[in-house]
Amino acid sequence: MNIEDIIARIQHTYPGLVEIQSWGETGLFYNPEGILKRGIYFLTLKEHDGANDTASALNRNGVYRLNLGISKTSFYTLFGEQPKRPAAGGVVAMDYDFTTLDTILPHPVYGWMSWISVLNPSLETFSKLEPLLEEGYQLAIKKYKKRLP
């Protein structure tokens, strides 16, 4: 799968998303009425290393990372622990190779916030993400409703 395939599939499945390009990534935000300035993060697709985010080695040719926020319960079910927040520019203290392709991993920087990541997901791995995508979408809706004026 490529980034365009993922964006098209997600926007077709989950209504109310707004695509925003910033910080070297594509963000899909839940903001159906455009009331909030940006909306609520649903997921991001990152194609480049950043100053504080190099653990996935995204500067390799053709490598990108899908990032998704899920519940603490689901994160714990997947990984058995919730890491502490790393220092600025650091990586969560978890025993994973964050450069591994096509594997659901904790997010190397935002795992402490129950974010997960996948480098270059295959169709099979993307299918495994579907319940987590639904969960992340429902979390974004809930956060959105809390932030409405």
Protein described:
The chain is an alpha+beta fold and 149 residues long. The chain has a single domain (3-147), classed as Aspartate Aminotransferase, domain 1. It is built from three helices and six strands; from the N terminus they run αββββαββα. It has helices at residues 3-13, 72-79, 123-147, and strands at residues 17-22, 25-30, 40-46, 65-69, 105-106, 115-119. It has a six-stranded antiparallel β-sheet with strand order 1-2-3-4-6-5. The longest helix has 25 residues, at 123-147. The chain starts with a helix and ends with a helix.
Give a count of the beta strands, DSSP E runs of length 2 or more: 6
Radius of gyration: 15 Å
Low-confidence parts, pLDDT < 50 over ≥5 residues? none
* Arithmetic mean pLDDT: 96
**Helix/strand/pairing category:** alpha+beta
Strand order within the widest sheet? 1-2-3-4-6-5
What coarse outline follows from CA principal-axis ratios?
Answer: globular
> Biggest β-sheet: count, sense, barrel?
6 strands, antiparallel
Please name the CATH architecture: Alpha-Beta Complex
* Gap between N and C termini: 38 Å
Q: Give me the strand/helix succession.
A: HEEEEHEEH
